[in-house]
Amino acid sequence: DKDTIIQHTDHDASSSRLSAVQTGYLTDPFAHLLHPTAPPTRRLPLINRGTYTRTSSIDTLVTAFLSHEPARKKQILSLGAGSDTRFFRLRSSPEFSHLPTAPSQLAYHEFDFLPVASTKRTLILTHPPLTTILYGPGETTAPAPPEPESNIVLQAEGYTLHSLDLRTIPAGTWTPPGVDPTLPTLVISECCLIYLPPQAADTILRTLTTTFPSVGIVLYEPISNNSAFGKVMVSNLASRGIELKTLSRYSTLDAQRERLRMLGFEGGRQAQSILECWRKWVPVEEKDRVGGLEMLDEVEEWELLGTHYCVAWGWKGG
Hints:
Belongs to the methyltransferase superfamily. LCMT family. The chain is an alpha/beta fold. It has 11 helices and 8 strands. The model has no long low-confidence stretch (mean pLDDT 93).
């Protein structure tokens, strides 16, 4: 039951993303295709801005990864990917057209529980805009399901969707089918490892730095659980049966940086609140555009919300 509750958090993220798209914050022609239910209720302006900043901040780090040594093939692993559309945006959106994202240049792997991955497979194969990106125009035959023991739910050149319970990732090394440990690799975890016990989450990060000689991590997680706002946030989630298991241990930006250092990201570590990302990473003209979309009466609430979520990133081996 707890696993099912965690899986349903993807619906919350998908609904928020679709609201941000429909309100004009984000450009994402695939958000509605991978949202499995009717269009959601429009979110509050501060939630739309938070979703925008979360997405654009991670896009900034992904772009930095792909831009480094552009002639070298790379690999992205998205943990708890759910209904995320980043792969399809990378392959087709004009804003990423200057990046090396062709199948010969980038291998993209997504991982999630089997029910979530199976739903995503069905939605991808139902919508021609998505199948065209994977298999080219005119493809009408659905690919045969791979052998169950491989845990691969859907595969195309440059893209693999895996079913995986992250708690089964072993200590030591981990190379799922199709993953090449010799490639420069970026791992993305958006509110994913936060649901695991601290020891299990730490094991996964240590395994990544052991398996891949050149690896980076991008984490998006809540922080600051000891503030009044943080306590209310944790209480509200707990009422839905959602427990943020690593939050107490990694509740500050310094704790997030130290976490990455201890778990093997020896090349460097950084962490910023979402509010800092909004202030420092979003250009002035883009702030003006976003600010003109909706009246944001809750400026103080936005600043409070923005200090209770962070993006942390670290790297090893260049």
